[in-house]
Amino acid sequence: PLVLGIETSCDETGIGIVRGRTLLSNTIASSMDEHARYGGVVPEVAARAHLEALQPSIDAALAEAGVGLADLDAVAVTSGPGLAGALMVGVGAAKGLAVALDKPLYAVNHLVGHIAADILTADSEPLEYPTIALLVSGGHTSLLHVRDLTTDVELLGETMDDAAGEAFDKVARLLSLPYPGGPEIDRAAVDGDPNAIRFPRGLSRASDLAKHRYDFSFSGLKTAVARWVEKCEADGVEVPVADVAASFREAVVDVLVTKALAACADLGVPRLLLGGGVIANRRLRDVALERAAAAGVTVRIPPLSLCTDNGAMIAALAAELISSGKQPSTLAFGADSTLPVTEIQVAEAVTV
Ligand code: ATP
Ligand code: MG
Ligand code: FE
């Protein structure tokens, strides 16, 4: 099926068009620059930017795919989770488009969309089930057990406080580096020693593991970096930015990879899929590939343009739902900022 997907859960206005498992276009307009001076995504600013970017993005995606609105078999949209106001813009647009064109509408889960991104990865074998998925971005840090993309996704664990990307952004700020912090910390860490400072690995003590084996926490790590910086200032010594950046990054990467591979081992699943904007981190990819190989786990990493928020992954998930016989969503859905990952599709019509 030819599907147009709309993604507006955070600061990317993503419009993607797929034909089945083939990617035709993937237009992404980001309002990141507008959030830079606030050091994080401002919901109202993001929602407004979506409103402005939607129509031109849809036009651009159609032109690039070489198709017209009338050719579409379905429209897909992210219903949640994400920022409520931002989601509402996409949901409203998708409903309007589907009703005006008289096309079926599929309202889907953003996190499951991140997994669906893998399907569009050209020239690769189809995703095998079950698989463990680690999704890390500015808004989420989730470990999932995927038994079937369209029917069975289980949340194993998630962050109890900051998302991993958010931790990069906050620590960059502590080091007086600009937003977004991920790429800045990466750059600063190049000349640093990852073992210079032993920063805490959240929820990794035996006592924590009993209850939070697959959960993450990055606020203690952020506080530890803040204390380190304060101590340098109190002592009148220059903050060793490269060492702090490298050591902080190592702590985040270590805990992400350790917990993801623990899930693979515990559940006997020798496959790990990575997704989300933090996957841009070279060190994270290297450590994941290295330790997974040692553990006999194969790792899949979609290209970065499909790892960050985008509309193509939303269209791809809808195309899979259609192929597996799911009915379209009724219009009885809205933006759901806390949509659980188990709700892969929202408001599926009941056939009688
Ligand atoms: P969502 O959470 O809804 O997926 P988002 O906009 O918060 O959306 P992305 O756009 O996928 O997330 O990713 C942005 C985040 O990724 C930012 O927090 C940024 O600091 C982080 N990031 C980007 N590049 C890197 C990198 N090289 N290393 C670590 N983090 C990175
Ligand atoms: Mg983003
Ligand atoms: Fe996302």
Automatic annotation (TrEMBL):
**List of residues binding substrate:** L135, V136, S137, G138, G139, D169, G182, D186, N281
The protein's matches in InterPro entries, at most eight in alphabetical order, are given as: ATPase_NBD (IPR043129), Gcp-like_dom (IPR000905), KAE1/TsaD (IPR017861), Peptidase_M22_CS (IPR017860), TsaD (IPR022450)
Q: What's the catalysed reaction?
A: L-threonylcarbamoyladenylate + adenosine(37) in tRNA = N(6)-L-threonylcarbamoyladenosine(37) in tRNA + AMP + H(+)
Stated EC number for the protein is 2.3.1.234
> Which cofactor(s) does the record list?
Fe(2+)
Name of this protein = tRNA N6-adenosine threonylcarbamoyltransferase
Q: Which SUPFAM superfamilies match?
A: Actin-like ATPase domain
The record lists Fe cation as bound by H110, H114, D309
**Residue ranges of domain Gcp-like in the record:** 23-315
One GO MF term, please?
A: tRNA N(6)-L-threonylcarbamoyladenine synthase activity
Q: What class of enzyme is it?
A: transferase
Q: Tell me the function of this protein.
A: Required for the formation of a threonylcarbamoyl group on adenosine at position 37 (t(6)A37) in tRNAs that read codons beginning with adenine. Is involved in the transfer of the threonylcarbamoyl moiety of threonylcarbamoyl-AMP (TC-AMP) to the N6 group of A37, together with TsaE and TsaB. TsaD likely plays a direct catalytic role in this reaction.
Q: What is its main location?
A: cytoplasm
Family note: Belongs to the KAE1 / TsaD family.
